[in-house]
């Protein structure tokens, strides 16, 4: 046994992002254990109540978001807080708290084909397209010390070859979206974001990424300011969408 193999086998502890069990040596580089990986695949087969397609094939979006002229919202699964103990939600929550590259890279590899298939419909490519994250709230960012959407966008960029630019900034002040109801979210959010790097998005396609889309208020606000900054087309991407608000 080589020294590196010895270290990997006995000293490194890699846990499953879905159940926190320690992964076997053979599965060390995976994000999920075989059981959770299977349940993750099953979660992705849930169909959209609007278009009847499975989550990864559905491009429906919340009303507010489609009004902005965004072209689509692609997602990996439909979120339900009732499924908190399921691996897909546990992985999602884990990524909010831990800047874990192995998990972020797994999500990026899952998202990349959805994004690329969307881009291939138009003439969008690595030259004329940028990935942009919906920036995390200041309070959560301070609490956990990182922005999970930016981390995933970085990994997505490595996997897909599409550059990532954190071109949107959150203004200081303003309330955290998750404390507010639907209507207030839309009102609150309008003044929350600004494009800090217009040159990076002007005349380009932008793929906006957020980990979860609930009402679509943050995503819509980002889509609007990117359009104003001169983006020529907006695609949206998320790990999960709370499905009940979508329209075709
Ligand atoms: Zn597991
Ligand atoms: Zn759909």
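Sequence proposed for the structure above (248 residues):
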């Amino acid at each position: 046994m080589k020294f590196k193999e010895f270290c990997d086998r006995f000293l490194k502890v890699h846990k499953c992002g879905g159940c926190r069990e320690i992964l076997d040596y053979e599965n060390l580089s995976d994000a999920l254990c075989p059981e959770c990986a299977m349940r993750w695949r099953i979660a992705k087969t849930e169909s959209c109540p609007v278009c009847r397609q499975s989550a990864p094939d559905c491009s429906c979006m919340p009303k507010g978001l489609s009004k902005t002229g965004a072209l689509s919202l692609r997602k990996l699964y439909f979120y339900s807080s009732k499924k908190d103990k399921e691996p897909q939600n546990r992985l999602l929550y884990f990524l909010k708290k831990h800047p874990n590259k192995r998990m972020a890279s797994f999500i990026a590899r899952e998202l990349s084909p959805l994004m690329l298939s969307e881009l291939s419909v138009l003439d969008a490519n690595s030259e004329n397209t940028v990935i942009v994250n919906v920036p995390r709230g200041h309070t959560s960012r301070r609490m956990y010390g990182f922005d999970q959407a930016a981390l995933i966008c970085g990994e997505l960029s490595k996997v897909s070859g599409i550059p990532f630019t954190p071109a949107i900034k959150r203004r200081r002040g303003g309330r955290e979206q998750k404390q507010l109801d639907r209507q207030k979210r839309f009102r609150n959010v309008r003044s929350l974001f600004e494009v800090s790097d217009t040159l990076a998005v002007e005349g380009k396609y932008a793929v906006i990424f957020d980990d979860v889309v609930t009402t679509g208020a943050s995503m819509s606000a980002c889509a609007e300011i990117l359009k104003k900054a001169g983006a020529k087309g907006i695609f949206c991407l998320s790990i999960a969408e709370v499905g009940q608000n979508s329209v075709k």
